[in-house]
Design brief:
By secondary structure, the protein is mainly beta. The chain has a single domain, classed as TolB, C-terminal domain (Neuraminidase, 6 Propeller).
C-alpha cells in the first residue's frame, strides 16, 4: 500500500549525482518502546522501522539469502513463498510453498512457516502443509523431505526451526510442532500426535523428543554457545519463553521459564510469543505481546519493537545488522547496532 507520505518522501529523495535516479524510500511505521537506557547501544535512538511490503495474508518464515542478497518469507495461509530485494522488490519465489496435493479441508495453513539458511547455504523449511521439515534447492526449487514422522506418526504442522552450528551436533535441527496448520487445531481428526512437541533432528535422520508437555510450542532459538535452547509458547493462558539447558547429546538436562510475557499481554499489546532470533551477544529478539521483545541473556526486557500489529518472526540480514520483521500483513526492517548470530 502506497501512502501519501511515502510518495512525498520518495520525491524528496531524488539523487541528481551519478546516474540521476531516485533512491527508493519506504513508509515509516510503528515505534521502538525503550524500557532501559541499555537499548541505545543496540538500537540507535533515531532508528526507524521501514515498511517494505504490504498485502500479505500472514507473513512468516523470514530467511536472508546472503549469497544472493535477498529475503525470503512465506504467506502461510496463501501457500506461497515470496522473495524481496532492494533491486527487484517483492516477487514470487515458490507456489505452492507447502501442500501441493488435491483439494482438501484438512489444513488451516497449508504453506511453509519457519525457514532458515543453513551453514551450508541451503534453504530449510517447516512445511506445514506436508507436515514435515524439508530442504528446498534455491535454484531448482526441488524439495527434499528431511523428516515427517516420529515413532510412526505424522507430525502436526512443524512451525519453526534452528540449526546447531558447531560441536558434535553440528547440522542438527531443533524444531517445534504445534497444530496451527491443521483445521481445528488440537481437535483436528487428522492430528496423529497426542501432544504438541519440540524435537531434535540429527544429521543421520534420527528424531529425538525434547518436550511433549507444552501447549503451543512455537519459536525456537539457541544461545551462541549452543548450550541453551529457547522455546516460545503461543498460549494466551501461558505466554512464556522456556529455556532448556542442553547436555552433550543435545537433550535437556534442566528447564525453566525464561520470560513470562503475561504483563505485556495484559496491557493489550497485539500478538503472543512466537518466532525469535539470537544476536552475537546472546540477546533474544523474540516475538511477544506488542512486537519484538529485546531480552538480555538474563531475561531483562530492554525494549519492544512495535509495528502496530503482531510480529510473527524476524531475521538478521544484509550486513548482519538489519533486522527484518514479518508482521501480520507487512514485512518491515530496522537497522541495529548489533549483529545476528551466525
Amino acid at each position: 500500500m502506497t501512502t501519501r507520505r511515502a510518495v512525498l518522501g520518495a520525491g524528496a529523495a531524488l539523487i541528481v549525482a551519478g546516474q540521476g535516479f531516485a533512491a527508493e524510500t519506504f513508509p515509516k511505521i510503528g515505534r521502538i518502546r525503550r524500557l532501559s537506557p541499555e537499548l541505545d547501544a543496540i538500537i540507535a535512538p533515531d532508528a526507524v522501522i521501514e515498511q517494505l511490503v504490504d498485502g500479505i495474508s500472514w507473513a512468516e518464515g523470514p530467511a536472508w539469502v546472503r549469497s544472493g542478497g535477498y529475503l525470503l518469507f512465506s504467506d502461510v495461509p496463501g501457500n506461497v513463498m515470496h522473495r524481496w530485494s532492494a533491486k527487484d522488490g517483492k516477487t514470487e519465489f515458490l507456489r505452492p510453498s507447502g501442500y501441493d496435493g488435491p483439494p482438501t479441508k484438512i489444513f488451516r495453513e497449508a504453506g511453509t512457516n519457519g525457514a532458515i539458511i543453513s551453514a551450508l547455504g541451503e534453504l530449510l523449511v517447516c512445511d506445514c502443509g506436508n507436515r514435515g521439515l524439508a530442504k528446498v534447492d534455491l535454484t531448482t526449487k526441488k524439495k527434499t523431505v528431511l523428516a515427517s514422522t516420529f515413532q510412526g506418526k505424522k507430525f502436526n504442522s512443524p512451525n519453526d526451526l534452528v540449526e546447531v552450528r558447531g560441536g558434535p551436533l553440528k547440522g542438527s535441527l531443533y524444531f517445534t510442532d504445534p497444530p496451527y496448520g491443521l483445521e481445528g487445531l488440537d481437535a483436528s481428526p487428522a492430528k496423529e500426535m497426542a501432544f504438541n512437541g519440540v524435537y531434535l533432528l540429527r544429521p543421520n535422520g534420527e528424531v529425538a523428543l525434547i518436550d511433549d508437555k507444552l501447549s503451543f510450542p512455537n519459536g525456537v532459538g539457541l544461545s551462541p554457545d549452543g548450550k541453551r535452547l529457547y522455546v516460545s509458547i503461543s498460549d494466551p493462558k501461558r505466554p512464556v519463553i522456556m529455556a532448556y539447558d542442553l547436555g552433550a547429546d543435545g537433550l535437556p538436562t534442566a528447564s525453566k521459564v525464561f520470560f513470562d510475557a503475561s504483563d505485556l499481554l495484559k496491557t493489550g499489546g497485539p500478538g503472543l510469543p512466537d518466532g525469535m532470533k539470537v544476536d552475537a551477544q546472546g540477546r533474544l529478539f523474540a516475538s511477544g505481546p506488542g512486537g519484538i521483545m529485546i531480552l538480555t541473556p538474563g531475561a531483562k526486557l530492554l525494549g519492544v519493537i512495535e509495528t502496530g500489529g503482531p510480529i510473527a518472526n524476524c531475521v538478521f540480514g544484509e550486513d548482519g545488522k538489519t533486522l527484518f520483521l514479518t508482521s501480520n500483513h507487512v514485512v518491515a526492517r530496522l537497522r541495529t547496532k548489533t549483529s545476528g548470530l551466525a
